[in-house]
Amino acid sequence: MTNSPRRRSNRKNKPQEERDILLMVVLTFFNVGSGATTILGAIQILPIYLAWSVGGAVQLMLFLLQAGLAANRAPLRKWLAIMVLASASVYTSFFTYYGELAQETNEKRAIDMAITAHNRLVSEVYTPMEDNLRDLQQEAVTLRKIADAERERGINSGAAGYGEQARKLDKQALNKEIEAENFENTVNELRPLFEYNLDNLKPQEILKKDRNALSSAPEEFRNNYPELKRGDYIDEDLEFSLLAPYLKVKSQEETALIALLIAVGVDGMAIMLGTAIVTKLIPPEERRSPVAIVGNSIASSIREVKTSFAQVNNAGRESLPLEDKDLQTAVENMTLNVKGNGSNFLNHFYDAISPVEPHIINYSELTKKYKVDENMQNPIRALIDKLREPRRAWVERNYENTEWVVPPEHYFQLTSWLQTEIKRQRSLEADRKKEIGYGFGFSELEETPVQFKIPINPNSN
Q1: Intra-chain end-to-end CA distance of the chain, in Å
Q2: Are 386 and 454 in contact (CB under 8 A)?
Q3: Residue 437: what pLDDT?
Q4: H-assigned helices in 68-200
Q5: Distance between CA atoms of residues 343 and 340, nearest Å
Q6: pLDDT in tens, 146-168
Q7: C-beta separation of 228 from 210 below 8 A
Q8: Contacting residues for 280 by C-beta, under 8 A, at least 6 apart
Q9: Residues contacting residue 146 through CB under 8 Å, at least 6 positions apart
Q10: Which of 97, 136, 205, 407 lies at a 20 to 30 A Cα distance from 378?
Q11: How many whole angstroms separate alpha carbon 29 and alpha carbon 310?
């Protein structure tokens, strides 16, 4: 009998915690590898000193959180931090894995892109210049033959010799030869700019040389190339390093998808191992099977949902006055210090509202009895302030800002509430009179607190 209390008291103690040392060693290796890829990836988008400091801090904090060595008293913030840090680690690690998997392929692809763009430039700008040179040279040869035939045989004029016709044809041939020679000099000057050795050149260098060649070409031969597009020579997805993972994965490149899968797998494995490092030692008599744990969790959730519905249902019943059958809406209680009965107070307010438009409220007449003593509360002003709240808008100022009026669209809402509340107040007053007996009544000279029920948001429907 004496041992029972001791056993019960032991159950109340918090379970002790134990760390799996072997698992921590494995997690350390995972984090070292992940940290290396994180730092190497960060170097590609950050200065080296920032890459080491930021990448190292991310991986160290991630290890401390996963190993249960930090933020144990704030589990929600702890796991939120793990998710953010793990995402940063995966994102930077992507650069490392992708670089190793696709570096050679990307370099070849980049060179191929640049060479293709260069060849297109040569074929559309320089090759037409060579064709034009051949045409000029052929025309000069033809004109020279015609001029010689005219001088030797008089092929056009019928008279041999260096006559007027011969001189004219000789001049045309000479001009064409000069034009062809000048254009040949231009083509020869431009040939090294277009036809250069592409070996061992980077795409950026090819782009630079092609821009120089294009700017040197005659204007009539570069109409198709107002400027060279950078994207034709360089993979812009890789050039913007920070967006490379998103752009490559979005384009569904196989290498990028594999790199992302490896990065997620390594960090995901580290997170999964981290969840099992710290274990709670539960006494055998308090242990439950996984099925019982799941069942208890589901039952607790159902009880919480039922409790919440019950609270909402009860709140709804409390907020609806039993006497109000027309205004099926939530109400709030408002206590005013009035002179006399609450029903009479509302009756005076009701009578002060003009039944025809504009529904002006005779404010000065209503407040007469409260101007005798300045220390007394002005319940009329308090009631009007409550009725003019934006969620009701039952009372507002007129256009001239001189009178309180009831908007026509809310007149019947207000009067309906007044009638219902007057009826409820009279019922309460009658019950109170029965309880106290003869002589019950509120003083017309002193203020007495009276509670009124006012709809919270009658215009919501």
Answers
A1: 67
A2: yes
A3: 57
A4: 75-121, 127-153, 164-194
A5: 9
A6: 888 878 887 777 777 787 888 88
A7: yes
A8: 15, 16, 17, 18
A9: 155, 156, 169, 173
A10: 407
A11: 52
Q: What is the dihedral of CA 227, 229, 230, 235, to 10 degrees?
A: -170
- Owner of token pair 């590898």: 33
| Contacts (Cβ under 8 Å, ≥6 apart) of 360 | 353, 354, 398, 403, 404, 405
**C-alpha dihedral, 250 to 253 to 258 to 260, nearest 10°:** -30
Confidence of residue 319 (pLDDT cuts 50, 70, 90): very low
Which residue do the tokens 């290796």 mark? 29
Which residue in this structure is represented by tokens 């099925």?
291
Using CB atoms within 10 Å of the CB of residue 53, give its burial: 0 to 12 exposed, 13 to 18 middle, 19+ buried.
middle
459 CB neighbour count, 10 Å cutoff: 14
Following CA atoms 104, 106, 112, 114 in sequence, which dihedral angle do they give, to the nearest 10 degrees? -120
What tokens does 337 get?
């210090």
Return d(Cα 48, Cα 188) in angstroms, integer: 47
Q: Which pLDDT tens digit goes with each residue over 73-100? A: 777 888 888 888 888 787 777 777 776 6
Which value, to the nearest 10 degrees, does the dihedral of the CA atoms of residues 319, 322, 325, 331 take? -20
Q: What is the pTM of this model?
A: 0.41
CB 450 within 8 A of CB 340: no
Q: pLDDT for 227-263, tens place per residue?
A: 788 888 887 666 555 566 667 777 777 777 887 788 7
The candidate with the shortest Cα–Cα distance to 33, out of 381, 199, 299, 270, is 270
Query: In the numeric block, which tokens belong to residue 112?
Result: 């191929």
